[in-house]
Structure formats: structure tokens, C-alpha cells
Design a protein that fits this description.
Layout: E1 19-23, H1 30-42, E2 46-52, E3 55-57, E4 66-68, H2 81-93, E5 100-106, H3 109-120, E6 124-128, H4 134-142, H5 146-153, E7 158-161
Helix pairs in contact: 3-5
Length: 174
């Protein structure tokens, strides 16, 4: 058998688009931290996408005009989720030289993130798992997770960051 020197394989569509990160208020900081590590190592910018499920895209675009699903349930003093997320992310990324932005999206989260990833030419999509709770388990059973929907309906890499994994420290698979 003859050994051949290892060659660097060239891939046609390298990672040259931004890293799209799905974010939401109250999300565990590990999602932003891990996404930043990936983006920094690949020298790519981060685009954070907050999907407001109480509105829908009027013209089918993610960053375009949106309308509320329920006009009666609208409150004038609703908190500015995007502004609050922007402050939180700025705090988490302070001291880094990473370029980042945040964009409001509308509709069903997995579809909105997939559309935005396509529009941006994103290199990958990063999302976190849900916190462990009865409510999260019920949502998973009824609607499925955003990560699961993306994994099965996306043609680009999806990085799922585990949030508070439930693996006992003494657990050994060997």
C-alpha cells in the first residue's frame, strides 16, 4: 500500500456568509457565546434573528412589513424585545471584535429563520435547545422544536447548542 500525502480539499461553497443565530428574550447566554466562537473562528459576522410569533410577514419576506395576528391582543406599551435583545447581546459580545447585527423576523420561527438564512446567504444557522420544563416538553410534543424543524427542512448546516443538558455527571456510555 502506498501512502499519498494529505491534500487539502477545496470546497466550492465555503463558509463566506454570516452566521445566523436565532435568539429570544430570556435565552441562555451559552447560545450567543457559542455562536460568537464559531463566527470568530471562521472570521464571519453574526446576524441575530428574533422571530416575533405574534406577527406575520405581510409580503412573505422576513425583514419586510409585518402585521399583528390578533389586533385585540395588542398593547401599546409592549416591551421592545429587539431593543432589549440588542442590549443583552452587546453586553455579551463586549470586548470582542466581531461584527454583528440584529433583525426582527415574523411568523413561524423555523420558517422565518430558514427564509432569512436564504436571503442572507448564511453559512449556517445556530439555535439553542429549550430549557427543561413541563411547558417546553409539551411544546415539543405538540409543535416540535425549532431545531428539529430546521434540521429536517434546511439545506445549510444547523448548529444546535444544548442549553442545560440533562446528562448525569456519572453517566458513561462506554
Amino acid at each position: 500500500m502506498t501512502e499519498t500525502p494529505a491534500r487539502r480539499r477545496e470546497f466550492s461553497d465555503g463558509m463566506n456568509g454570516p452566521v445566523l443565530v436565532g435568539v429570544m428574550p430570556g435565552q441562555h447566554p451559552v447560545v450567543v457565546e457559542q455562536a460568537a466562537r464559531v463566527a470568530l473562528s471562521a472570521n464571519l459576522p453574526l446576524v441575530f434573528g428574533y422571530v416575533d410569533v405574534t406577527v406575520y410577514p405581510v409580503d412573505g419576506t422576513t425583514g419586510g412589513p409585518a402585521a399583528p395576528i390578533d389586533l385585540d391582543g395588542m398593547e401599546d406599551d409592549a416591551p421592545d424585545a429587539v431593543g432589549a435583545l440588542k442590549e443583552t447581546i452587546a453586553g455579551q459580545l463586549s470586548g470582542t471584535d466581531i461584527q454583528w447585527s440584529i433583525i426582527p423576523l415574523a411568523g413561524e420561527p423555523a420558517k422565518a429563520l430558514a427564509r432569512e438564512a436564504e436571503d442572507l446567504g448564511a453559512s449556517m444557522i445556530v439555535v439553542g435547545t429549550r430549557e427543561h420544563s413541563l411547558t417546553a416538553t409539551l411544546k415539543d410534543l405538540t409543535a416540535g422544536s425549532v431545531a428539529r424543524h430546521l434540521l429536517h427542512r434546511q439545506n445549510r448546516p444547523v448548529l444546535v447548542i444544548p442549553v442545560n443538558p440533562r446528562v448525569p455527571e456519572d453517566h458513561d456510555d462506554d
